[in-house]
């Protein structure tokens, strides 16, 4: 599932996201020093740009052409960007670390597609390299998102975000309605997007990672800083390729 027009508003609406915490998490496993990174589901390129600023050699991948267009405006021609499905990566290179951050893996709804994603990532990780990703917890899907409404009301943009229990087990449907101001005509344009996310028990992700050939070295919460608890919000996985 790819972002559409939302891509061009994403950075404004997500301006308070602590992207540096993802960078600190990566540095626990792969210090920069010229290390190579494949930033899968790179979105608008904010973390991609941070990788570059912190001294990593980074390549970005995203399914959404709209997201990649925004990313290209940030990184220019310094970072190769590819429009690819994460379950069918074909970069022609291996990397010291592959990342899938900002709960992007939760957009993969089918179990077999997650397995294919892990297998595809495995082929792009160097020997003794790392695969790092985060997902929403079950608690966040069922107790924070489901049947809730979130709003943003700014001068230039407003958002009504309705969340419902999804069709799949442990999934949530996001109905997003945007109103963006037209400065020339002093009225607002409306557009809608529909997104679905799904998550699984940590033990299930561990099983799939091991089936793909990875050794799981860490499962932590909140950017790797806390133990996983029943009410943890975001779960971080670190897996190493050592076969």
Automatic annotation (TrEMBL):
Species the sequence originates in: Priestia taiwanensis
This protein's name: Methyltransferase
Keywords: Methyltransferase, Transferase
Gene Ontology molecular-function annotations: methyltransferase activity
Domain Methyltransferase: 37-129
Source domain of life: Bacteria
A Pfam family reported for this protein in Swiss-Prot or TrEMBL: Methyltransf_25
BP GO terms, sorted: methylation
Membrane-spanning ranges: none
